[in-house]
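User: Predict the structure for this protein chain, please.
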Amino acid sequence: MGSFTHTPPPSSTDRLAEARARALRRLNDSYEAAASPLLREYPEIERLSWGTQQTEANAYRAWQDADKPDDAPQTPALEAILAGRNGNTGTETLEQLVAAVLARAEAFIAWQTFTGTRQRGEWAIQDAQTPEAALAVTWESLTAS
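Assistant: Here is the predicted structure, written as structure tokens:
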């Protein structure tokens, strides 16, 4: 004869914890899906350099805006990127690359509103007192006008 194991149903605390975890996964997945046009197909390793690229581009732009009073700031990351982009025959200039980096940075900074929205959703999920309340927090509910 086989043995019988009784598994009690999940407690209300367990159901709430599972609903919170599921709601947060769904919220994060929706946030990332909404960000995908901004991130396009950039690999993570490239995205990790965006802060350095922006810092160098801002320094170069400030130097340009100051009518180039001294030597140009050091831009080793941008110069390496430019060398790779241009290869042996390219014609892109550092000024053009700086403009492209700053335009992407501006778009990403504008996106940060949605980062705050995602965080607000996370707090609402954590504060939910019922599974239904946790699952009611969605990307759509947070971004609806």
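The chain is about 70% helix and 0% strand.
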